[in-house]
Amino acid sequence: MLRRKPTRLELKLDDIEEFEGARKELESRKKQREDAEVVSDGAGAALGLSTDHKSREQMIHDRIGYKPQPKPNNRSSQFGNFEF
């Protein structure tokens, strides 16, 4: 196995700014969740979990770039525009 010298990584100002922005966003989300937990009661907590699940699912979709499109339910969209 060939060994090579370690690659030098340079930390750029843009990288630092991106990291700070992401960190602040995560802190604000965490604070919002804590505030929501304090305000909600038992029934609201169950509703809050489903909302949290949706937001988690939405975060994943945003991260991977998935944008679901609703499927039309008419027959012409399924088979094209064939006329009989």
User: How would you classify the helix and strand content by structural class?
Assistant: mainly alpha
User: Could you tell me the strand content as a percent range?
Assistant: under 5%
Oligomer: single chain
In round numbers, the mean pLDDT is 77
Whole-Å distance between the termini?
68 Å
Rg from alpha-carbon coordinates? 23 Å
What proportion of the residues is helical, as a percent range? 55-70%
Tally of alpha and pi helices: 3
Biggest sheet layout: none
Which stretches are poorly predicted, pLDDT < 50 over at least 5 residues?
41-48
Order of helices and strands: HHH
What's the overall geometry?
flat
Keywords: Cell cycle, Cell division, Coiled coil, Mitosis, Nucleus, Ubl conjugation pathway
Protein name: Anaphase-promoting complex subunit CDC26
Main location: nucleus
Biased composition (Polar residues): 72-84
